[in-house]
Amino acid sequence: MPAPFDALTTAWDAMPLDEALALLPLDSDAGGGATADLFEFDVLFGEDPERVFVHRGDIAVSGAVAIGNGHHEGYGDDGLVYLIDGDLTVDGPLHFYNEGYYVPLLVTGSVTAQNLFCSSECWLFVAGSLTVSNLLVTDLYECGSLRVQGATTTRAWLETYSDVDVRLRGDRDHGGHVAADPAAVLLPEFLDERSGVATNSLFAAAFADRSVVREPMR
Q: Which of the pair, 123 or 163, is modelled with greater confidence?
């Protein structure tokens, strides 16, 4: 189950929406400035949120992290937005997913993780670069989103739905394994004949620090 964003840090300060978005680099929007329209919060929530929960400075986490908001976990409210004014570094796998609620995370700097799983209604915006040393999986639906303004580097990227909002800029080569055939990347135990990827088994193995990719990839 995902944990609230307090799993990353408890040092969140409420800030008016416009002030929080002004922390994003000016070039994060081709028009020259970050606005609520850029993120379409009114589509997610019916209206723009009044405040954003902001953490000033970098966040570094050791070990596996699962964050987001689950509809059935009894915590969190729809319409919450979080912003890290700095870098997010996870020394391990990071699984970000929302279920029933959208709880966006904006990062003014860069994001680094060993494995990154963006699932369900995950909504992640990275103004800097995204570096995933092993496997990036985008298993999104409806208004789930992953947007990276800087370079994206990962050993392999598996995208389960091509019509969902995934916008990766910069380095898109990834050694020829962009949105690759799961059978060419994953070990056989993580393949599913119907969906292509046995996602629950894949996430569990990554969080148990087990190998999930072929050596070498095909």
A: 123
Name, in order, each residue with C-beta under 8 angstroms of 173's C-beta and a sequence gap of 6 or more: none
**CA gap 198, 190 in Å, rounded:** 5
Would you give the end-to-end CA distance of the chain in angstroms? 33
The per-residue pLDDT for 92 is: 93
Q: Phi and psi (nearest 5°) for 39?
A: -100, -10
Mean pLDDT of the chain: 83
List all residues 6 or more positions away from 65 whose beta carbon is below 8 Å from its beta carbon.
Answer: 3, 7, 8, 90, 92, 93, 94, 95
Q: Which two tokens stand for residue 202?
A: 């894949």
The position carrying tokens 């996430």 is 203
Q: When comparing pLDDT for 100 and 150, which is higher?
A: 150
What is the identity of the amino acid at 181?
D
> What's the confidence (pLDDT) of residue 184?
83
Write down the pLDDT at residue 163: 65
CA distances from 208 to 63, 205, 212 (A): 10, 5, 10
pLDDT per residue over 190-217, tens digit each?
998 777 888 889 999 999 989 998 877 7
Helices (H), 81-210: 182-185, 199-207
